């Protein structure tokens, strides 16, 4: 049984593509423009038994920057000010 699930909820497609990930594999996705991309990674931390996430900016076709936007535990309010 899958532990993680991803879906593209809005796009030009008529169908909604999905992906599944397990505790052992995690799941990673990205959305991009010509200015760069945003990556979202989910994984299970075996040491703590918690599901973790990381949101980063990354270059796409030579444009953009590399920076961690947010990271933390899934299901916990780890809100950060994206400007700060």
Task: Give structural notes.
By secondary structure, the chain is mainly beta. It has a domain at 23-78. Helices cover 0% and strands 49% of the residues. The protein is globular. The model has no long low-confidence stretch (mean pLDDT 91).
Can you tag this structure with a few keywords?
84 residues; mainly beta; 4-stranded antiparallel beta sheet; 6 strands; 49% strand; globular
Summarize the structure.
The chain is built from no helices and six strands.
Describe the protein's topology.
Blueprint: E1 4-7, E2 18-21, E3 27-33, E4 36-45, E5 50-58, E6 67-73
Antiparallel strand pairs: 1-2, 3-4, 4-5, 5-6
Major sheet strand order: 3-4-5-6
What's the overall geometry? Answer: globular
Q: End-to-end span in angstroms?
A: 39 Å
Count of helix runs: 0
Helix content: under 10%
Order of helices and strands: EEEEEE
Give the percentage of residues in beta strands: over 45%
| Beta strands, count | 6
Mean pLDDT: 91
Coarse structural class: mainly beta
Which stretches of 5+ consecutive residues score pLDDT under 50? Answer: none
Radius of gyration: 14 Å
Largest beta-sheet characterization: 4 strands, antiparallel
């Amino acid at each position: 049984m899958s532990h993680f699930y991803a879906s593209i909820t809005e796009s030009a497609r008529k169908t909604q593509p999905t992906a599944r990930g397990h505790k052992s594999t995690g799941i990673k996705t990205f959305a991009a423009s010509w200015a760069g991309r945003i990556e979202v990674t989910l994984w299970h931390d075996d040491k703590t038994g918690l599901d973790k996430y990381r949101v980063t900016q990354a270059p796409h076709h030579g444009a953009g920057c590399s920076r961690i936007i947010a990271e933390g535990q899934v299901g916990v309010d780890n809100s950060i000010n994206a400007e700060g």
